[in-house]
C-alpha cells in the first residue's frame, strides 16, 4: 500500500491541535476541525472571512437539493441527483481595525493555534493580529454545537488588545448567500426576514431553514440587511490589556418538510429562539457532561502509541458527532456533515461499515439506521421496477431513498447496497435478539429484497443461479458475471429469509409457497466460484485468467487511477480496488476455515490497491486474525489516521466518515478478535508488539463488556449489567463482573 | 425477425411515387424524397411551408457543428460531440392568395402527387389548391441538385390557375434561421448580406456557407431582408388556364474551412453565382445524362419482383447521391444527407457496409473513403493516446476524424472501427491490386493500427493474447473478454500487416524488428474461442453459458429494447443485436468451411433480434450461401426496402444510408454468390424461386463483368475491358466477352 502520511497536527490523546497556521492545508483543517451534533454540522472555516482556500459549509442533516443530468437516459438510468446543500453561514463575522479587515491570507499575525477537544466538542482558535498601523490584538474564536439542543449552536469571540485601546468594527451576520462550490450557484432565497432572523427556502426541493441569533456584546448593535443576509455592526470599545467577550447563540431550525407553510416554519423558528436561555459557558458545560458520559462507555484506550490513540478517538468522536440516532430519519453521508464530496449521500457504507459501531454501543441508533431503509422502501420498490425487477432495490447513493447515483455502471450493476440492508437486518436481529423488530420491519425488508434478488438474478445455460452484469464491491471489475460476493450475499439472504419465515408466517408478509420454493432453489443452486484445489474463491467467473498486473509497479504519480488512467483500462486486469472476496469472508467470518481465509488473503491482498478508503480496515481485521500483525497494524494505522494524516490527499473535501467507522472495527474485530456472526459473541484478542495495552467496551444484550489487553494477557469482564455468555478463545463461558483472563 | 412493412408508396421500376398526401408519414416522405449530390443534400420537405410534422433540412457534406457534454468525464471519455448542422433553407417559398397562405396542413387541396425519378434525380410534387374563396390553382414544385456542378441546386414552380385570373403573392428566400431540431437552437449568424445573397457563419466551428440565388419570374421582385434571411416578394400576374413558371438556380458554396477570411468566402460565393448560366431544363438535361451513364454501369435488374426491383434501385440511387468520391475528404454519414439522426456522423459502416459497392463500381471513390481515414490519422493517434495506447484508434462516430461518440461504453470498448480500416486497406488492395496505395498510405495505416491493437490487447494469465473489456459488433454484449470478432479481426490485421511488410521495408514505415516479432506472436497466440466438437465459435468467453432467452417470445411492443428494457437488462443473456461471429465469417468468408458456416448460422441466427439495420443483409448473404433461399430472400427484401416500407418506423429521421449499401451486397455477394476474399474473384449465383431473372455488373481490374441469372442458368461475361480470370462455381476460368454460362 503506497500511501504516505502528511502529518502536520500535534499529537494529543484528547485533541487535535494545529500549532501555527498551515495555509497550504487550510481546507484539510476545515474538514478535520468540523463540528457536528448529528442535526447540524459546520466545517472549521474561519468565520471572520478568509481569501485563501476555503469552503464555507454549514450542513443540516437531511437538507438536500436536487438537479437533473442531461444526456442519454436509457430506462433505469437515474437522472436525478440529490445533494447535501450548504445552508446558512451562521458564523459570519468581519472585524475591521484602522481600516484593515482581518484576513489571515493578507494580514500579519502570530501565535496561531487551533484546537478541537473531543471531551467537549469545542473548537478554539486564537491568534495575535498585528495591523499595518502596528496595533496588536489577541483574538480567540470559540464555537460549539449543543449536544443537548440539536438546533442550537454558539459562537464566542474574545478580544484582547495588547498595545492599544480602540474601537474595532465588528460585523456578525447570518448569511444564506454562499454559493455551492461544485455547482457554482446559490440555492437559497429568503422570503422572510427580521432583525437577526431570516428564513431560507431552497430553490428546487423547497427546504425551509430558519436561522436566528441573539448577540450579547458590550456595544450598541446597528442592524444591517442584505438580500439573503441579516446582521449587526458593532463599534467595540476595547481597552488595552482587558479582554472583551462577544457571543451569540444561534438557532438553525428545520423540520425538513418542503410542504410546511412558510408562516409555520417562521413561527417555529422564532419560538425555538425564544427558548434559548443558555450562554456559551452553560452550553459548554452541558457538552462536557455529554461527552464524559459518552466516553465512559465508548472510549478505546491505547497505551504506548499516542498517534493511534489520538486517531481512534478522533474517529469515535467524529462518528458520534455525525450520527447518534437521536434525529428521526437520519442516515450517514460518506463525508458526514464535514464536506460536499459524494454529494453528502449515504452509501452501503452505512450498513457495512458504520452499523457495528452503533450496534455495540447504542443499538437503538443502529435500529434507526435500518428504519431509514424501511421507511424508504417505497422508493426502493420503485427503483426495482425501473430496473424491470420486483421487490426492493436499495440505492447506491441517496439522500431521501431515491437513487441519486447517475452513473448506470454503478447504480444498475451494484447489488451490494441491497444485500447490505439484508445483512444489517440479520446482524441487528442476531446481535440484539430483537425478534419484535423482525416482525415489524425486518421480515418485510427481507421479503422485498429476496423478490428483487430473485428477479434480478438469472439461470445460466448450465442451470446455476447467479447475477450477470454486476459490479461487486471491487469497483475495478465491471459488468462481470457471477461475482462471488454478490452471489454469496444473495445466497445468505435467501437462506436467512427462509429461516425467519419459519417463525413468522410467510402469508403474514405476503409470501407464497412457490416463492419460498423458488428462493430455496436459487439459494441451493447459487454459483459460488470456488477452486477446490486451492481453496480460493474466484472473484467472478474468469477472474483467474485476467491479465496480471503488478500493482506495486504502478508509479505512485498515477494514483488515483480514476484521474490518470483511461477509464476502460482500469477494468482490464486482475487488480482490485477494495476487498470483494475478502469482504464476504469478513462479514460471514466464521463460515470459512482458517486455511480458506489465509489462502484468499494471500491471493487477493497483493492484488489490491486500496483505492477505496474502505479497503484497509477490512484487510487489517483479517490480517490480525491470520497473525500477520505488522500488516494488521499498518492497515489499522492508515484507517485510523486516514484524515489526520491526509493519506489520500482529499481530506479537504471532508473527512472519510464512513471509512473511519471501520477504524473502530479494527480494534474490536481486528485486535480484539471479536466475532458477532456465531451463536455466541466471541473474542480472541491479540496486540501489536509495540503497544503496552489497549481496551474497549461493547454493549451486548444490555450488558457492557470491557476488554483489556496487554502484552501478557487479555482480560474480559462485565462492567455493567447481567452476566452474558460469550466465547473466549473458542471456549464458551459465562462472563460476569469478575471476568476471565487468558495469557496471550 | 418480427419486422412489419408499412408500405404506402406506389411501386415503379424507376421511381418512388406518393399518390395522395400521407400527412401521418410526412417526415418519412421527407427522408425518402431526399435529394443529394454528395456535396449537398436536401430533405423532401415542402418548400412553401407546412405546419404539420416536418424537418426542414439542407445539409452540406462536412459542415458540422460541435457541442460539449457535461457530467463525469473520466480520462479517455470523449466529451465533444460533432454533429451535421442544418444550413440554409434555400427553397424557402411562401404563396399567398386572397389572404390565404398555402399550407397543406390547413388548406383544401386535391390531386396530390409526389415523385422522385432515379433517372434524373428530379423531385416533382404537384397538387391543386382550392382557396376558401373557391379559387383553384394547380401548382407543380420541381427541384434538382446538379450532378455536374456540386454547388448548384435549382427550384422551379409552375402555376396554373384553373378557374380564375389573379395576383397571388410569392415570396422566395434563403433562410439561415431554421433551428436545429434535436438541440433546439439555430447555429448560424449572417455577418454579410446583399440582395439575394448571404453568408452564414456557424456558432462554434465557424463554418462559412455562402448562399445566393437568381430568380427568374415574370414579375417585379421586391427585396426583403431579415436577420438571417434574404429574399424577394413577387406579385404574380396569373391568367386562367395559362401556366406561369418561376425558377431559381441557387448556389451553396463552402470550402469547409473555418479559417477562411469572410471576405474570401463571400467573394468566392459571388463568383460561383456569376458562373451560373444554366436554367432548370438545362440542369435537368445534364442530370439525365449523368444518371443514364451511371445506370449503364451500375444498374441491378430484377425481373418478376417489382418491389425489390424498385427497392434495390432506390438503394443504389441513394448511395450514389450520398457519396461518389468526387468531393475531397467526404465520408458517409449513417443517414447520408437525409436527416440528423446519429448526428450525421460516419461509423464503421463506411468500411464494412459501403466500401464494396464503390470498390466494384468506382474504385477511386472507394480509395477516397480510405483517404479520409489516412488524413485523419493524427486524430486517431491522439485518440489512442487518450486511451493510454499507441498507434491509431479510429473513432466509433466522427465528422472530422475526432471521436464524436460520448458514450464510453461504445467509444472506448468498440475496436471494430479500427480493424475495419485495416480490413478496408486489405480489401481495396486485394481487389484492385493497387500496390502503390499500400506504399503511400496503406502500410502506414496498417502499422499504426497494429500498434494500437498491440497496446490495447493483453496477455491472459494463461498466456493467450486478446482483448478485454470490449464490445464487439453485437452491441448487446458489453465489456466482454475475448470477443471472437475482435480477436479474429486483430489476428488477421497483424497477419496481413506482416505480409505487406515483406514487400515494403519495415524500416521505411518506422517499424522495428521487435515490433514485427511481437505482432507475430500476438497473431499466433490470439485466443479465438472455438468449440472443436461443434465447430462453433463462442462469441466471447462465457457466451455459451449465458442465460438463454427465446427472442421470439419477446412481445413486439417491447421493441426497440433500448427504449423499453432497463438498460443493463439488455446485456444479460444470449440474445444478440446483430451478427458478430457471422460478421467475420462473412468478411473472411472463404477462410471457413461450409460446415462451420452452417453450424454458426444455425446457432446465432435464432438468437439475433436484428435491432440494428445492419443485421439482416449479412444474414441474407450467408443464408443464400447455405441454400436457405427463403430466409435469404426475406432478409434481402427487408434490407432493400427498409426505408421504403419503414420497417423500423424511424425513416422519418433519415434513411438508413449505410444499411442500404448492404442491399447491393445482398444481390452481388448474396444471390450473385460473389466472393472477393480469395485469390480470384469468384461467383456462385443462385436465384430466389419467384424471380424470373436478375442481373448486375461489377468493375474488376478495369474490366466490367456482367452477371445475368435466370431460373435455368447463370451467365457471366465481360462487357467492357480485357478478359479477366475468375472463379465460377469453384472453377478458375478466363472470362471474356463471350462469357460462360452454367446451368443452375
Radius of gyration of chain A: 27 Å
Strand order of the largest sheet of chain A: 1-9-10-11-12-19-16-15-14
Note the overall shape of chain A: globular
The CATH class of the domain at 63-103 and 127-294 in chain A: Mainly Beta
* Main sheet properties of chain A: 9 strands, antiparallel
Reported by name, the CATH topology of the domain at 63-103 and 127-294 in chain A is Beta-galactosidase, Chain A, domain 5
Helix content of chain A: 25-40%
Give the averaged pLDDT of chain A, no decimals: 96
Considering residues with a beta carbon less than 8 A from a beta carbon on another chain, report the largest interface and each chain's count.
Answer: A-B, 47 and 47 residues
Output the structural class of chain A. Answer: alpha+beta
Descriptive notes:
Two copies of one chain form a homodimer. Chain A has 744 residues and is an alpha+beta fold. Chain A has a domain at 63-103 and 127-294: Glycoside hydrolase, family 65, N-terminal domain (Beta-galactosidase, Chain A, domain 5). Chain A is 30% helix and 23% strand. The first copy, chain A, contains 18 helices and 31 strands. In chain A, the strands form eight sheets. In chain A, strands 1-9-10-11-12-19-16-15-14 form a nine-stranded antiparallel β-sheet, with helices on one face. The first copy, chain A, starts with 14 loop residues before the first strand and ends with a strand. The mean pLDDT of chain A is 96. At the A-B interface, strand 21 and helix 13 of A face strand 21 and helix 13 of B.
Amino acid at each position: 500500500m503506497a500511501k504516505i502520511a502528511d502529518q502536520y497536527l500535534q499529537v494529543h490523546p484528547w485533541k487535535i491541535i494545529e500549532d501555527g497556521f498551515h495555509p497550504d492545508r487550510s481546507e484539510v483543517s476545515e474538514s478535520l476541525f468540523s463540528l457536528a451534533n448529528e442535526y447540524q454540522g459546520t466545517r472549521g472555516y474561519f468565520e471572520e472571512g478568509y481569501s485563501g482556500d476555503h469552503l464555507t459549509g454549514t450542513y443540516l442533516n437531511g437538507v438536500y437539493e436536487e438537479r437533473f443530468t442531461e444526456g442519454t437516459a436509457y430506462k433505469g438510468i437515474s437522472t436525478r441527483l440529490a445533494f447535501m446543500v450548504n445552508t446558512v453561514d451562521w458564523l459570519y463575522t468581519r472585524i475591521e481595525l484602522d481600516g484593515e479587515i482581518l484576513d489571515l491570507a493578507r494580514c500579519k499575525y502570530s501565535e496561531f493555534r487551533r484546537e478541537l477537544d473531543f471531551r467537549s466538542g469545542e473548537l478554539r482558535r486564537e491568534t495575535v493580529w498585528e495591523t499595518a498601523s502596528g496595533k496588536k490584538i489577541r483574538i480567540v474564536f470559540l464555537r460549539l454545537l449543543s449536544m443537548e439542543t440539536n438546533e442550537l449552536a454558539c459562537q464566542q469571540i474574545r478580544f484582547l488588545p495588547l498595545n492599544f485601546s480602540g474601537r474595532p468594527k465588528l460585523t456578525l451576520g447570518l448569511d444564506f448567500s454562499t454559493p455551492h462550490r461544485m455547482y457554482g450557484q446559490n440555492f437559497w432565497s429568503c422570503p422572510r426576514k427580521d432583525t437577526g432572523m431570516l428564513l431560507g427556502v431552497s430553490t428546487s426541493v423547497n427546504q425551509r431553514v430558519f436561522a436566528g441569533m441573539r448577540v450579547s456584546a458590550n456595544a450598541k448593535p446597528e442592524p444591517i440587511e442584505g438580500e439573503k443576509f441579516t446582521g449587526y455592526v458593532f463599534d467595540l470599545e476595547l481597552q488595552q490589556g482587558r479582554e472583551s467577550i462577544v457571543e451569540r447563540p444561534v438557532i438553525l431550525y428545520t423540520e425538513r418538510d418542503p410542504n410546511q407553510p412558510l408562516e409555520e416554519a417562521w413561527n417555529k423558528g422564532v419560538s425555538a429562539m425564544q427558548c434559548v436561555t443558555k450562554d456559551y459557558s452553560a452550553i459548554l458545560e452541558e457538552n462536557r457532561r455529554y461527552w464524559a458520559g459518552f466516553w465512559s462507555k465508548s472510549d478505546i484506550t491505547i497505551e504506548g502509541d499516542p498517534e493511534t490513540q489520538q486517531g481512534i478517538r478522533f474517529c469515535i468522536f467524529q462518528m458520534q458527532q455525525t450520527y447518534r440516532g437521536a434525529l428521526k430519519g437520519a442516515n450517514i453521508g460518506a463525508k458526514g456533515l464535514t464536506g460536499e464530496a459524494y454529494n453528502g449521500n449515504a452509501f452501503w457504507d452505512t450498513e457495512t461499515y458504520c452499523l457495528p459501531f452503533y450496534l455495540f454501543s447504542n443499538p437503538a441508533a443502529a435500529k434507526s439506521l435500518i428504519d431509514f431503509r424501511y421507511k424508504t422502501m417505497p422508493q426502493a420498490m420503485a427503483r426495482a421496477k425501473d430496473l424491470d425487477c420486483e421487490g426492493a432495490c436499495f440505492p447506491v447513493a441517496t439522500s431521501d431513498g431515491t437513487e441519486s447515483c447517475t452513473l448506470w455502471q454503478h447504480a444498475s450493476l451494484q447489488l451490494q447496497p441491497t444485500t447490505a440492508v439484508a445483512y444489517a437486518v440479520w446482524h441487528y436481529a442476531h446481535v440484539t435478539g430483537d425478534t419484535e423488530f423482525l416482525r415489524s420491519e425486518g421480515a418485510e425488508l427481507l421479503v422485498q429484497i429476496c423478490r428483487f434478488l430473485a428477479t434480478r438474478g438469472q439461470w445460466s445455460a448450465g442451470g446455476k443461479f447467479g447475477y450477470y452484469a454486476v459490479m461487486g464491491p471491487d469497483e475495478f471489475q465491471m459488468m462481470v458475471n457471477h461475482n462471488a460476493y454478490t452471489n454469496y450475499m444473495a445466497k445468505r439472504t435467501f437462506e436467512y429469509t427462509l429461516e425467519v419465515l419459519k417463525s413468522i408466517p410467510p402469508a403474514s408478509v405476503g409470501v407464497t409457497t412457490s416463492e419460498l420454493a423458488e428462493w430455496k432453489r436459487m439459494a441451493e443452486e447459487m454459483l459460488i466460484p470456488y477452486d477446490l484445489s486451492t481453496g480460493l474463491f474466484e472473484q467472478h467467473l474468469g477472474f483467474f485468467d485476467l491479465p496480471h498486473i503488478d500493482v506495486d509497479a504502478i508509479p505512485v504519480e498515477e494514483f488515483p487511477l480514476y484521474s490518470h488512467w483511461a477509464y476502460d483500462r482500469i477494468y482490464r486486469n486482475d487488480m482490485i480496488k477494495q476487498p470483494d472476496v475478502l469482504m464476504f469472508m469478513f462479514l460471514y467470518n466464521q463460515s470459512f476455515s482458517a486455511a480458506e481465509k489465509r489462502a484468499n488473503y494471500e491471493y487477493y491482498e497483493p492484488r489490491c490497491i486500496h483505492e477505496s478508503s474502505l479497503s484497509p480496515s477490512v484487510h487489517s481485521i483479517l490480517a490480525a486474525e491470520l497473525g500477520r500483525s505488522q500488516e494488521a497494524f499498518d492497515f489499522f494505522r492508515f484507517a485510523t489516521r486516514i484524515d489526520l494524516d491526509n493519506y489520500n490527499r482529499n481530506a479537504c473535501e471532508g473527512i472519510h466518515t464512513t471509512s473511519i467507522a471501520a477504524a473502530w472495527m479494527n480494534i474490536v474485530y481486528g485486535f480484539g478478535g471479536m466475532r458477532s456472526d456465531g451463536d455466541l459473541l466471541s473474542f480472541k484478542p491479540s496486540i501489536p508488539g509495540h503497544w503496552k495495552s489497549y481496551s474497549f467496551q461493547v454493549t451486548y444484550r444490555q450488558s457492557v463488556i470491557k476488554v483489556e489487553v496487554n502484552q501478557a494477557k487479555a482480560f474480559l469482564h462485565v462492567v455493567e449489567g447481567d452476566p452474558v455468555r460469550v466465547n473466549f478463545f473458542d471456549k464458551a463461558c459465562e462472563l460476569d463482573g469478575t471476568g476471565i483472563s487468558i495469557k496471550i
